[in-house]
Input
Amino acid sequence: MFYPVQKFADFVVFKLLNIRQGTKLASALNFFIFDTIKIFILLFIIVFVITFIRSYFSPEKTRSMLARSKGKTFLTHILAALFGIVTPFCSCSAVPLFIGFVEAGIPLGVTFSYLIAAPMVNEVALGLLYANFGLKIALIYIISGEIIAIISGIIIGKLGLEKYVEDYVFRIKVGNVQEFEEKKTMKMRLKETLNFTLELIKKVWVYVVVGIGIGAWMHGYIPAGALASLAGRHNPFAVFIATLIGIPLYSNAAGIIPLVSEFRRLGVSMGTSLAFMMSVTALSLPEMILLRRVLKPKLLAVFVAIVGSGIILTGYLFNIILG
Output
């Protein structure tokens, strides 16, 4: 599919710029041109498809559907985690969504299954993972993110931590906003999807280009296997350290994943790379600060500990499976 893109990158570097093949500069520049074009093509396709699917699942509709099925606890955890993939979400929407779910009577554990899945399995990360590592790793990312969200939600629900939700949350009445939802035609959905996709790419393109640029420099100037002894599969602490580094780190997934691709080439194991990426996207510092408005410190600490432990276990598991 990307053979013409590779030919174009070769033409620009070796013919147009006349840089000698086999040099470090040629390798870095060729990588940058090829990966930039490839990633933006895949990013547009994947974000467009996911955004179109999401147009059928507004947060209000998700809340209503989960509220209706709250009696079937285990299945509702699965449903909540699946809705987390297809429902529009950003860190700034975490608090109103949480309040809306509590007001609708959705159990706390189910609410967390949704809140964990939504940022962890996001469309930009999925698109870039597919572009850099292929379908197998992208599917592993989705499945592992969903499992972490489901199990974490079940554990939080079993612990009975409702008393650690801020008291004012239970007094707020959001009301049923679903009735105001506009009925959309297919043409309207496609137009909105295209506009959203272009707007999203406008927001993240700088992060993507900077991430690819750093990755291209590493590709050309740092030899493969350079980090194998520090963060390879044989270092028993690599996953743990990578997760701890990623938890407080504030970064856009669009900037992190192109670097993760190069981490792999330099010898960082797949499980360690995934753990680092998941901790950055699922437990970002801004989201923790926002969630503190509705969660007391003990529940917030339990949330971080359970999700962080799930990410670490996933990292070790995939280091064993994938090597």
User: Anything to note?
Assistant: The mean pLDDT is 78. The radius of gyration is 21 Å. Residues 186-221 form the longest helix (36 residues). Residues 43 and 184 are 25 Å apart (CA to CA).
